[in-house]
Amino acid sequence: MNKKDQKFLTTGEFAKLCKVNKQTLFYYDQIGLLSPVLKDEKGYRYYSIRQLEFFFVIDLLKELGTSLNDIQQYMENRSPESFLSLMYQKKEDVVKKRQEIEMKEKMIEAKIALMEESSQIDFNKITLETLPEATLYLSRNIENITDEEFVEVVSDFINELNVSQLDTGFPIGVMTKREQILKGDFTNYSYLYIEQPHPKEGYPYFQDIKGDFLIGYHIGDDHTIHKTYKQLFAELERLDLTLGDYVFEEYIYDTVVMHYKEQYVTKIMIQVDQKGS
Questions:
Q1: Which of 47, 69, 96, 152 is most buried, by CB atoms within 10 Å?
Q2: Residues 184 and 270 in one domain
Q3: Is residue 126 part of a domain?
Q4: 3-class DSSP state for residue 120?
Q5: Residue 206 CB: number of other CB atoms within 10 A?
Q6: What is the pLDDT along the chain (277 residues), one digit of tens a residue?
Q7: Residue 100 lies in a domain
Q8: Domain that includes residue 201, residue range
Q9: Pair type for strands 173-177 and 191-195
Q10: What does the alpha-carbon distance between residue 193 and residue 195 come to, in Å, rounded to a whole number?
Q11: Residue 162 CB contacts under 8 Å (≥ 6 apart), including other chains
Q12: Both 155 and 65 in a single domain?
């Protein structure tokens, strides 16, 4: 092949157009992935303008996580059919990655909104609020289980959220049935849960009953939470309310934002009814 027959690019020119250093091109040549079309008697290397698209495909595949070894295997057996198959596969990969990024963006937005909201809360105040209906994804029942079993349930639940892409960025909370609360067994939870603002089809959800909730905040760890419940029960009595079917707890501040357990804040939402209703 004669250099005068067509326009060739030096290694430096080709590297500049590809936005890489010359060492990358030397390495690709060394492993037989992309070699110059011409090497003259002085050892100078020249690339064809047609090889730019070849390089860009290699670069695209690398950006999509394809190893150089896999790229080499494709190049050794390339054909229009195999290229089309590869591009369809990579399109699926890109769609999946985009969905994962969008999900992470929603998770971050939820965490920002919750943290900004919490900064405006008076944690010493108990309020009666009407909450809208919410969709929750639940763990299996966790009543009367051992500490070891509880750790296993938490691990399984987190794994379910990751595999099924159900982690919405909302805190993982605990639901406790009325009978446990009345017995003063505040940490004998019934279920773990996470809110699903945009429920995906095909999953069993708990449709939280909208209505009135007495809401208070416990500062400290679980060992002293009975004191906060005592205050909430006193407020229930003052407002002439009775305990509803469930109590919900969610961490507002935990180890993610606080150093010490004494600084943790738990939001307690007690479902309530009017006496006699």
A1: 47
A2: yes
A3: yes
A4: coil
A5: 15
A6: 455 456 789 999 999 999 999 999 999 999 999 999 998 888 889 999 999 999 999 999 999 999 999 999 988 888 999 999 999 999 999 999 998 899 899 999 999 999 999 999 999 999 999 999 999 999 999 999 999 999 999 999 999 999 998 999 999 999 999 999 999 999 999 999 999 998 988 898 998 678 999 999 999 988 899 999 999 999 999 999 999 999 999 999 998 888 999 999 999 999 999 876 5
A7: no
A8: 121-274
A9: antiparallel
A10: 7
A11: none
A12: no
Same-domain status, 44 and 149: no
Task: Quote helix, strand, coil % in the chain, to nearest 5.
Answer: 45, 25, 30
Whether residues 246 and 151 share a domain: the answer is yes
Q: Which two tokens stand for residue 252?
A: 């507002």
Asked if residues 260 and 187 have their Cβ atoms less than 8 Å apart, the reply is no
CB 46 within 8 A of CB 37: yes
Total domains in the chain come to: 2
Same domain, 174 and 267: yes
Q: Which two tokens stand for residue 6?
A: 């067509």
Residue with tokens 């279920």: 191
CATH number for the domain that contains residue 25: 1.10.1660.10
- Residue showing tokens 């009367």: 144
Residue whose token pair is 């079993």:
149
